Amino acid sequence: MVWPAQSPDLNPIEHAWGYLKRRLAEHEHPPNGMEQLWERIEVEWNKIPAAMCQGLIESMPRRVKAVLKAKGGSTKY
C-alpha cells in the first residue's frame, strides 16, 4: 500500500499540535513578539493532559486499521 510518509492519519502528534494551536488561539490578545509566543507555547504544551497523549497512543491500532481499510486514502483521523 502506498500513502504519504507524513500522513496525519498515522501521526498522532498532528492532533497534539492542533490542540496546542487551539489553546493558543484562546488567549485574549496576540503575543507581543516571539519571546511571548514561545512562553505561551511552553505553558500550553506543559498543560496538555497526559490522558490526551495516552488516548492518541491507544488510537494507533484503530488508525492503522482505518488507513488499511481506506487503502491509504483519507480517514476520519
Structure description:
It is a single chain. By secondary structure, this protein is an all-alpha fold. The protein has one domain (10-25, 33-70). The protein is built from four helices and no strands.
Multimeric state? single chain
Could you tell me the strand content as a percent range? under 5%
- Rounded mean pLDDT score: 87
Topology as H/E string?
HHHH
Over the alpha carbons, how many angstroms does the gyration radius reach?
16 Å
* Count of discrete domains: 1
The count of helical stretches stands at: 4
The profile of the biggest β sheet is:
none
Organism: Paxillus involutus ATCC 200175
GO molecular function: nucleic acid binding
Protein name: Tc1-like transposase DDE domain-containing protein
Which features does this protein show?
mainly alpha; 58% helix; nucleic acid binding; 77 residues
Give the topology.
Elements: H1 13-25, H2 34-46, H3 50-58, H4 60-69
Summarize this entry quickly:
InterPro entries: RNaseH_sf. About 60% of the residues lie in helices and about 0% in strands.
